[in-house]
Design brief:
Elements: H1 11-35, H2 42-45, H3 64-88, H4 90-97, H5 100-121
């Protein structure tokens, strides 16, 4: 019994899967074979930290404020990304929807502004506080 590769619309997908699996297996087997050739010794097994000797012990703790500011940045950054497509289609959509598209953006911006004011009131962006 011979296996016939699928033809038609799935042929390229089948070839892609075969190449991906073949590449993964080849690199995995290659790393297994080549990894056994090298010798292990103490200097190779030490963690590398930017040319400095690694310090033993626990790492210093980061302030929660760092993570809070990072999350706020991601939140507001993603929201600003949504404004770009709106600006691109504004003229075309004005002919279709009229003033409604302006009010949708205004409400979107008001929600962002309320969130920003809330973050400022809670002191999320105040670096002088601990």
């Amino acid at each position: 019994m011979t296996i016939q590769p699928p033809t038609g619309e799935y042929e390229s997908l089948f070839i892609h899967v075969i190449v991906a699996v073949g590449f993964a297996l080849t690199t995995w087997i290659g790393s297994l074979l080549l990894g056994r050739i090298g010798r292990r010794y103490g200097v190779k097994d030490v963690a590398y930290e930017c040319g400095m000797l690694p310090e033993p012990g626990a790492q210093p703790r980061f302030s929660v404020k760092f993570y809070l500011v990072a999350m706020l940045f991601i939140l507001f950054d993603i929201e600003i990304v949504f404004l770009y497509p709106w600006a691109v289609v504004y003229r075309e959509f004005t002919a279709i929807f009229g003033v409604q598209i302006l009010w949708t953006l205004t409400s979107f911006t008001v929600v962002l502004l309320v969130g920003y004011i809330y973050a400022i009131k809670k002191g999320a962006l105040d670096w002088s506080r601990n």
